[in-house]
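Q: What residues go here?
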């Protein structure tokens, strides 16, 4: 049994063989499909651990951002909700975890942690970290399709390869840092 399973599954769930994916909540970067889904998920997980979900409500975030000047941009509300819930969960002896799958979906877990922040967790070989904690640098490598040169970057979490080109001039990434068609990244 992994440390992640110990943190995110109740003893009963472990005994029944519930997988970690069975207690995971996925939310698109633009937000919930229906208001309250995220808060309901978090409250349900907290209750599963036998903790009363005091203040697990994202309506406070909606009220705080309603009518804000300037208005929050698309994708801002989910980040504010996650920030809010992470703070609430810390006070309850829990942590909001994010499974860093590299997609634009927030893959979320709630862990019973006590007072320590979990570190060094993985799920299916992919990092799982506490929401708001620093991400590990990403290692990106590829072979240029034109000159066959191997290129490797170690990127801090706040950096992308937007508009990156090979020394031979071949464009490798678009303006958002996504690999262009024909570019294959090494696993």
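A:
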């Amino acid at each position: 049994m992994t440390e992640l399973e110990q943190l995110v599954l109740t003893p009963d769930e472990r005994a029944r063989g519930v997988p970690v994916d069975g207690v995971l909540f996925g939310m698109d970067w633009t937000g919930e499909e229906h208001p309250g889904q995220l808060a309901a998920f978090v409250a349900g997980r907290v209750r599963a651990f036998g903790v009363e979900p005091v203040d697990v409500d994202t309506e406070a975030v909606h009220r705080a951002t309603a009518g804000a000047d300037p208005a929050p941009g698309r994708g801002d509300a989910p980040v504010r909700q996650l920030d809010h819930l992470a703070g609430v969960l810390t006070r309850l002896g829990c942590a909001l975890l994010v499974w860093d799958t590299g997609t634009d979906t927030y893959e979320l877990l709630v862990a019973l942690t006590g007072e320590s922040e979990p570190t060094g967790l993985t799920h299916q070989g992919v990092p799982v970290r506490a929401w708001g904690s620093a991400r590990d640098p990403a290692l990106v490598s590829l072979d240029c399709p034109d000159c066959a040169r191997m290129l490797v970057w170690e990127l801090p979490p706040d950096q992308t390869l937007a508009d990156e080109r090979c020394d031979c001039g071949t464009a490798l990434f678009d303006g958002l840092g996504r690999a262009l068609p024909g570019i294959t990244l090494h696993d």
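A: Context that may help when evaluating the design: The longest strand covers residues 105-112. Helices lie at 3-8, 11-16, 37-48, 59-65, 76-91.
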